[in-house]
Each structure stands twice: as structure tokens, then as C-alpha cells.
Design brief:
Length: 251
């Protein structure tokens, strides 16, 4: 595990993108293609903006969608499919494949099975993730299940998670925020060769502290990342503000 603290979130996002791009290119150079996971949310704005500018042969990259709300159409302003299409897929243009989660599928169980079968047997080279205000990893809210083998899950969103989505401006009222989502499971995320974890902003400081200096527990789902051999944290000074001063050396 490595931790990089930058003075601001723009720099943090740029460094995360650069490291992720390097790892993607290493995979392409080694085996001719790469498989990645892409996250969404306000914490990923800067990282994705810089990632799409990196020198990568995207035609050799297959990407998987990390999570999506149940019942949200691709045209909804909060749709993560819409988010990824506009901020990532349309920007790179030549992806080998992008595997979206259809959160408004009529048969959600069939959709979960479809996605799970697609990713099973694939080795993910780089997973781009973030951490929620409640410590969630993807939409695995506390208490998260670290042992579930199913790659994709139907999950219930807790009130803290739903309030975060409202606070970030994705919805007009709390009642508008869906109560369920399809999420990649924690165990599937942890199978990735490398994890790029971008977590800016003061509102994430408590979750960052919990995940990095607290015990590994489903009550703080992101704490499981302590056990990943190649997890790279990219923080800004605000999100790192509750860490002990001697915990890491800021850059």
C-alpha cells in the first residue's frame, strides 16, 4: 500500500491518473490488453479528466462499471452510465469494450448474473475506486460482506450513503435517491492486481482515517484495502486532515 497526499484535489487526481495509466500500459505491454474497473462520483471528476488525456491504446482496454442505482435510466442526471459515457467512454472513443450495469433492467437478477459471468475468469489489472463518507467501497455500505464470492450484488443503500448522493447534488430530495443499487462486491474488487483509490475533500476525512488507521472491519468497508498489496491511495490535505501527522509524508 502506498499513500500520496497532495496539496489539492486537482493534483491528487492527476497523480492518480498518471499512476493508473502507467499500470494499464504495463499490462498492455505484458499481455497485449488490459482489463480495468472504473468508479464514479464527485471524487473521480479530476482523476477521470486527467486519465482520458493519458497516452494509452484504449482499443486494447476492456472496462467494467463499478456500481449503478436500481431503477435509474441512462438519461437520468444521476445515472452512473451517463456519467461514465460522458466523462470517460466518449472521451477515449476507442475502448475495446465497456460493460455497463443496466440498473433499470426489467430483470435485475438476470442483469447481475450477466455481469457476474462476464467478469468471472477475467483478471482485472487496475481498479479505479473511491471511498464514501460512510467508508463504503463501491456501494458496499457498512456492514459490508467481505466474503461473498458473487462478483456483482444487489445491495441496500444506507441513509448516510443516500445523504451523500443528495449532498453532492445528484438528486433534489432524499426521497429521490434510490434505496437499492447493483454493486461490484468487495471480494471481486480485492482480486484486482492494482487498486487506484482517489479520495479528496474534507468530508471524506473521517472515512479515510477509519479506513487507514482503524481495524479491518465491515463497519468501515474501505478498511479492507489495508490488506491489498498494491493499493495506491491519493488524498488531498483536506481528506488526510484527521490522519496522525507522522502517518505519511505529504508530497
Amino acid at each position: 500500500m502506498t499513500i500520496t497526499i497532495s496539496s489539492d484535489k486537482r493534483t491528487s487526481g492527476a497523480l492518480a491518473a498518471r499512476k493508473g495509466a502507467s499500470l494499464i500500459n504495463e499490462a498492455i505491454a505484458y499481455k497485449g490488453f488490459a482489463t480495468i474497473i472504473v468508479a464514479t462520483g464527485a471524487s473521480q471528476f479530476d482523476m477521470l479528466e486527467y486519465l482520458v488525456r493519458e497516452d494509452i491504446d484504449w482499443s486494447k482496454v476492456e472496462a467494467f462499471h463499478l456500481d449503478e442505482y436500481i431503477g435509474i435510466s441512462v438519461f437520468h442526471s444521476a445515472s452512473f452510465r451517463k456519467y461514465l459515457k460522458e466523462r470517460f467512454v466518449d472521451k477515449v472513443g476507442t475502448l475495446k469494450r465497456f460493460n455497463y450495469i443496466k440498473g433499470d433492467a426489467q430483470d435485475i437478477e438476470a442483469e447481475i448474473n450477466r455481469l457476474s459471468k462476464m467478469i468471472q475468469g477475467k483478471q482485472v489489472d487496475v481498479a479505479f475506486v473511491g471511498v464514501g463518507e460512510n467508508g463504503h467501497l463501491a456501494f458496499n455500505d457498512p456492514p459490508a460482506d467481505f466474503e461473498n464470492e458473487q462478483p456483482y450484488l444487489l445491495v441496500e443503500l444506507d441513509d448516510a450513503c443516500r445523504r451523500q448522493q443528495l449532498g453532492e447534488g445528484w438528486f433534489s430530495t432524499l426521497d429521490d435517491v434510490p434505496k437499492q443499487a447493483v454493486s461490484m462486491g468487495v471480494k471481486q474488487i480485492m482480486k484486482s492486481n492494482h487498486i487506484i483509490n482517489t479520495v479528496p475533500d474534507r468530508r471524506k476525512a473521517k472515512a479515510v482515517s477509519c479506513a487507514l488507521i482503524g481495524p479491518v472491519s465491515g463497519l468501515c468497508p474501505a478498511s479492507i484495502l489495508q490488506q491489498h498489496e498494491s493499493c495506491h491511495w491519493y488524498l488531498d490535505r483536506a481528506s488526510a486532515s484527521l490522519l496522525p501527522q507522522d502517518f505519511v509524508i505529504p508530497t
